[in-house]
Amino acid sequence: MQAGNELYKKSMLKEGSLAGKVAIITGGATGLGKAMAMEFARLGANIVIASRNKENLMKAEEEISKLGTEVLSIQTDVRRPDQVNRMVSTTVDRFGEINILVNNAAGNFRVKSMEMSVNAWNAVINIVLNGTFYCSQAVGKQMAKQGNGGSILNIGSVHAWTGSPLTAHSAAAKAGVLALTKSLAVEWAPHHIRTNMIAPGPIADTGAVTQLWPTPEDAALILNNIPAQRFGHLQEIANLASFLVSDYASYVSGACYVVDGAGWLNKGKYQLEDQ
């Protein structure tokens, strides 16, 4: 990419594209979740951010509120169906309905699969796969009750197809989320509920990058295997997410979009020499 060609860092949809919508974003207080929440707010949606960390929620709520829409933060552990149900009921009490759900809450860490404890396995599966189902089911019921449909967007990973050493728990969970995305797209279509998924590659300024590739050497090794020769940008994911949850994508359901600079297609190292 040529220096200065940074249109990907700018918003894509026009203001008002999500006006009047009510959007829940889990894991919405930091990183990718907050970036999507802020973009949805810029586009006119009322925002509900959910996270386990109350301090992060308060900071994010204050920041998002400056964009002019209503923001509600709800401390929620997506592994707990009772807390998920409370999140949904609180949202409906405040805004009257739910139009958008982004299942972004996630957990991941590197560990050898032969040394992985049952607790380590369950910690990731419960957040990524079970949490996505709990939130989707609770919100899906509400959307069906409303009768006007809605959009559910799951944040996945290319590891759902490729697998990944040292993160078998996360890869397995994301593969389950991919299957869930496709299954619900078909089953819930009569309710006019769409489900889609985005599978980001390494995105700068996110917890995944700092946790999975913590050293400059780790980051350089990953970057060396991305044909685009850069990490992704938060705004790129926020732009695609905004399109997929908007009415512009009303005929898009059951799809998964990989956003990783062609990294998942690259088998081994690929150098862009003399180009």
Number of domains: 1
Tally of alpha and pi helices? 9
Helix content estimate: 40-55%
If you compute it from the alpha carbons, what radius of gyration comes out, rounded to the nearest whole angstrom? 18 Å
Using the coordinates above, name the CATH class.
Alpha Beta
CATH architecture: 3-Layer(aba) Sandwich
The major pleated sheet works out as:
7 strands, parallel
Structure commentary:
It contains 9 helices and 7 strands, in the order E-H-E-H-E-H-E-H-E-H-H-E-H-H-H-E. By secondary structure, the protein is of the alpha/beta class. The chain has a single domain, classed as 3-Layer(aba) Sandwich (Rossmann fold). A 7-stranded parallel sheet has the order 3-2-1-4-5-6-7, sandwiched between helices. Strand 1 (22-26), helix 1 (31-42) and strand 2 (46-51) form a beta-alpha-beta unit. Helix 1 (31-42) packs across helix 9 (234-245) and helix 4 runs parallel beside helix 6 (168-187). It is globular and about 50 Å long. The termini are close together. Residues 270-275 have low confidence and may be disordered.
In short:
With 275 residues, the protein is of the alpha/beta class. A seven-stranded parallel β-sheet has the order 3-2-1-4-5-6-7, sandwiched between helices.
